[in-house]
Each structure stands twice: as structure tokens, then as C-alpha cells.
Amino acid sequence: MAADAPSTFPVQLVEQPRLQKLKEMFISKFGSAPKFYVRAPGRVNLIGEHIDYCGYAVLPMAIEQDILIAVEPVKTKVVQLANTNSLYLDFSTSVNNIQINKTKPQWHNYFLCGLKGIQEHFGLNNPTGMNCLLDGTIPPSSGLSSSSALVCCAGLVTLRANGKTLSKMELAEICTKSERYIGTEGGGMDQSISFLAEGGTAKLIEFSPLRATDVKLPSGAAFVIANSCVEMNKAATSHYNIRVMECRLATKLLSKSKGLDWKTMLRLHDVQTKLGVSLEEMLTIVEEVLHPEPYSTEEICKCLGISLEELRSQILSQNTQDVSTFKLYQRAKHVYSEAARVLEFKKICNEAPANAIQLLGELMNQSYISCREMYECSCPELDRLVDICLQFGAIGSRLTGAGWGGCTVSMVPTDKLNTFLKNVRKAYYQTDVQRLALENNSLFATKPGRGALVFVEA
Question: Does the global pTM surpass 0.85?
Fold first, then answer.
């Protein structure tokens, strides 16, 4: 049951080669053995892009790739972090003085987000020190949520090391908030699925209050992840936070035009709730109220009846202070139409009509077009990859994750899977030396995996 705490599993390490290897590396690094292990999975979002932070439900599933951390609580007040990948440097810090550098989204800062979130939630005055060795199998900056999986894993590590317990829901909410320490204004999808996922089912994740509902995917199709090999780091780029702000500004202008208290309205979902109308009606209101041309900061101030100084101090976030134009019509149109597609996707999965795969594929394709045209979060490589996937038999294909690089997810009939993989490999990966080097971790079919958990040696 998702409301409970994450499970703890006793395991025989001889049957778990990855854990066994991690233990051996841990001993050679720290000179003693780990006391427990924590894993948190990455995720693929099947549909519902860039709408969680607007308050709308999304439809992800956990993947098998994960972050795995071996942990030994220690008497010293120091957290020592090491990574099995030598590209990621060791780091150590006093557990009582956590400093997170927003200007550099380095791997250890994501760990510190999870650590700090738990410390602050419990008001831990005397938190335990820890030795930690991390092993990750999620390709970084690929849109499969490696950073949020690391924050979640660190949160669960800190919880366990300090002898505390929380439900999966509480952990998801704390880790969502604590990832903001690094400057990512996420909406909570990634952390929620990392904790709430269950094997064999995707989840409809709804917010405020957080809840997760099983969505059974059709049996005749496989979901294939293909990495464009263009890296995109959310915390390092302004694109993501500008989109968050464009949605917030659209919320304010729509609210004001409808006589709502616009100052208290933050998310596009709030406007719909207050007006008590359908998503289709919201799309009509967007057409009536907002214009497709970009809005200057001056025009926004005029619409809201505020000064530029008030706009900057009361509405714009720190990292959007210098942006001069915002596209509000396009962003709002994407969000309301995408929110409707998510609900339609779930309905089709529940009702399972004979042509379910065809219908779901069409929704994925519409989602992609909206991401590309209205939200402008694609890139030439993703466009090329989606074209290739559709050309070689995918019924639906779209970018997944923030976009601007990262991965696509395609729905492929099971009987065409092997030829699909072979053809995509040839058309996208084998034409480029750099992609060829990354090919093994870049193209794979995936099944819905389980959420975060703790392993102890039996």
C-alpha cells in the first residue's frame, strides 16, 4: 500500500551481484562494511509533460534503472560521499552545516538536498554522520529523473540512518520541496513516482493532496526509451524555470480577466478550480483572453496594474528577473490540452477498447506536437529521433522529461519490438560516433518497476 513506509528487504548478497560488488568497493573505500542499502528508481513519463507544477495530474512509471547507495552511519559528524563512477568526485561535509551551491548542480548537491530536507523536517539537532557509496544506472541529464532519484535516495538514506520513519507520501512531499534548494521549481511528479511506484503498473499521480492510482497499460505494446544523447540539466538552464514563470504569469492574467483574486493564484489548475469549468472551456477562455504574440514585461504590468518593480519583487523568481518577453498563450494552451490528454489516456487504459493502442499512440503524438509547437521544449535531435521511431513502427512517440534534449518514449506493438530496436539503432545511433559510444544505455524497452526501498543483508 502506497501510504505506508518504503519496504525493507533482507537479501542474500551472493544472489545480488550488484550489491555484492558495491559492498566490496565500499569496504576498500572506507575500511568497513555498509549497514544497509537504499535504491530509488528513475522514471519515464508516458504523458503529461510540464503540467505537474501547474497542479495537473501526470502519468509516469518507474523504470528499472536506479540510484543505489550503500550506507554506514558513523559517530563522526561528517557525511562522506563517493561514487562508483570516477567522473563524479568524492565529497565530504559537516553534517551540521549543509551548504548547497545553486550555481553548480554537481552530483553531491542533489544528495545534500535530500539530506537537508529530512534534517529540517524533523529539526534534527544532532544528525548522524554517514559514509555513502553511490552507484547509478540512470543516464544523467536524460530526462529520466536521475537527479530526483538521487534526492529521494538521499532522503531515505538520511531517514533510515537517523532511525526515523515516514510514509512514502510524506517522503515524496519532503523531497519535492527539498529539490528546490538547488533551484529546480519542479512540481512533484519525479519524487512521487520514485516512492509510490509499484511493479507492473503505471500511476496517475494527482497533486494537492498527493495521491496515486494504478493505470494498467495494454498488454500488446512495449514502451521503448531512446536517448537523444543531448544532455539537458534542469538546474543548469533557464529554459525550465522560464516555463514555470510563464505558466504563473498566464495564471495571473487569466485570473484578473475573470475577476478572480489574481494575487493569490499561482497555478493554471487554480483558475479552472475557481471558475468551476472544464478543461475544454479553459482552452476557450485562453483563446479569448490571451494573444499569441509574446508579452513584454511592460504589457504584463499594464494588464495587472502593477509597476515593474512590483512584478520583479512579488512575482518573478530570482532566475527570471532579466527575461524581457514571455509567451503566455502558447504555454497555457499546452497545459490545459495536455491535462485533458492525461485523463483521456487513463480512461482508455481503464476501458481497454479493442483499438486502445492506436488511441493511446494518437494521444502521445498530439502531446509531442504540443510540446514542440506550443511549449517549445524539443530540439532538432529529439525531432529526428521521434520521426525515426514513428517511421520504424512506433504507434506513438514523444519526448519525455523536461525536453531540450534527453529521451523519447515510444509505444511499439510487442510483435514489432525487435525489428524496431534494430532499425532505430541503425538509423539514429550507428550514424554518429558519439551516440554509438552511448548506445548500450540509450535504447531499451522498459516495464513499470517498483519504487524506493531499503535492502539489509540477511
Answer: yes
